[in-house]
Amino acid sequence: MEMTMKTKEVSEQLGVNPTTIQRWMKFFNIHCETNEHGHYFFTDEQLVVLKTIQAQLQEGKKMKEVDLSEYSSIITKSPSTDTKIQKQTKAVNVHAEVYEEKLENVLKRVEDLEAELSKKADEVVSYQLLKHRSEIENMMKMLQKLEARIDKMEEKITPDEEVELPVAAGAEPKRKWRSFKQMFSF
Predict the structure, then answer these.
(1) What mean pLDDT do residues 64-92 have?
(2) Distance of CA 7 to CAs 74, 117, 144, Å?
(3) Cα separation of 103 and 100, whole Å?
(4) Chain CA centroid to CA 72, Å
(5) Which of 25, 66, 136, 144 has its CA 20 to 30 A from that of 160?
């Protein structure tokens, strides 16, 4: 397992500022591991590359004159400025025809989704109506059975007989009248 060092440790070993280490990393496009906060972790190989950069700069070379060809496996080549500009220009220039075609495809898809949604909503409403209809039919059958039972019960009762209905069924309560004397007598 390789030893990893933080930027501060590397800067202390080289005797330079940590921002100088970060500047070299960006300028020479040295690829190294970072944590979730963006802090660099350096391997021993990367430390050797940084020492080589420092030595060449101390010899009086400018940063663009530093030769790191022997460390090409550690350093990723940086594309030229012209290539970067061309890539950015290609990304920005989208032809109107392509844009309109994609926009039409998106709008078509939205319309299709709306139609599907409407169809599903209609299906749900239809299902609910059929369910309600069957419940109403069941209730109607039950009412018809109840009416038939009431009719049978009424047939058993003869009209000659005087039936006393309970008060709860709507009959008048029987009142027992006392005479006026009985009310005030002891």
Answers:
(1) 59
(2) 17, 57, 90
(3) 5
(4) 44
(5) 144
Residues in the chain: 186
Please list the alpha-helical segments (H only) found in 3-161. 7-14, 18-27, 44-58, 81-92, 96-156
Is the CB of residue 77 less than 8 Å from the CB of residue 29? yes
- Shortest CA distance to 38 belongs to which of 15, 3, 6, 11? 6
pLDDT at 171 over 80: no
- CA-to-CA distance for 43 and 26, rounded, in angstroms? 16
Per residue in 109-157, pLDDT (tens digit) is 999 999 999 999 999 999 999 999 999 999 999 999 999 998 888 888 7
Q: What is the full DSSP assignment across 128-166?
A: HHHHHHHHHHHHHHHHHHHHHHHHHHHHHS-TTSPPPPP
Phi–psi pair at 158, nearest 5 degrees: -85, 145
Q: Which of 58, 62, 59, 74 is nearest to 25 (CA)?
A: 74
- Backbone dihedral angles phi then psi of residue 174, each to the nearest 5 degrees: -75, 135
Token digits of residue 43: 């391997």
Structure tokens, 52:
């080589």
Q: Are 64 and 89 in contact (CB under 8 A)?
A: no
Q: What radius of gyration, in Å, describes the C-alpha atoms of the chain?
A: 48
